[in-house]
Design brief:
The chain is of the alpha/beta class and 193 residues long. The protein has helices at residues 16-24, 46-52, 71-80, 92-103, 111-120, 135-145, 150-157, 161-175, 180-190; strands spanning 35-38, 62-66, 84-87, 108-109. The chain has a four-stranded parallel β-sheet. It starts with 15 loop residues before the first helix and ends with a helix.
């Protein structure tokens, strides 16, 4: 990360418990804007660590990293509160972009995670929820799941960026979600996509 001027590595740990300890020790120097956790860390894995960090305030957005894609890990990471899920083979520029997006509150998923999310959505449902979204809102939601920006969604759908923002605002309200990650989680859990 040293080659990216806008990103600083604050600290590194060997296991998930150390990450939880650093963020809960009360030391303001240990606070981070974004936390990267490996799914398979010793002592305490990344997903249980992410779950424990739900009570931390301010809670940093968590991006889970893994050496391989597994739909079960993806579902668990989202349930634990992760804002993103990337494979370790992503290019450094992609990881840097993901950190920036997570810092801004946007969900970030590797292409293979997005595929896993959409392909298993119907098979790992907690319970099927009625879909309150219009067809246009569903189109927007599907593109949000693909990690597209508002500008990219607008270009893909042939509408203005303001129209996309209006649809996203309506989706957030209807689904009672705070952000795009909540939208993706709802899409995954409900089987809407």
């Amino acid at each position: 990360m040293s080659r990216f001027d806008d990103l600083d590595l604050r600290w590194a740990v060997r296991d998930g418990q150390q990450a939880v300890d650093r963020l809960t020790d009360g030391n303001p120097d240990d606070q981070v804007d974004v936390l990267l956790l490996d799914v398979q860390m010793p002592v305490l894995g990344g997903i249980p660590a992410c779950r424990l960090l739900q009570a931390v305030r301010p809670k940093p957005p968590v991006i889970m990293l893994t050496t391989f894609e597994a739909a079960g890990f993806l579902a668990e990471a989202l349930d634990a509160g992760a804002i993103g899920f990337l494979t370790k083979d992503e290019a450094p520029e992609r990881i840097a972009d993901a950190i920036r997006a997570a810092r801004a509150g946007n969900g970030v998923f590797s292409p293979s995670a997005t595929s896993a999310l959409t392909s298993v959505a119907g098979s790992v449902l907690h319970e099927k929820s009625p879909n309150p979204l219009t067809a246009k809102e569903m189109d927007v939601l599907c593109l949000v799941v693909e990690s597209l920006t508002n500008r990219q969604i607008a270009a893909r759908l042939g509408v203005s960026e303001a129209t996309v923002k209006t649809h996203i605002s309506a989706i957030l309200t209807k689904l009672d979600c705070a952000d795009r990650v909540g939208m993706v989680t709802w899409a995954f859990r409900s089987g809407a996509i």
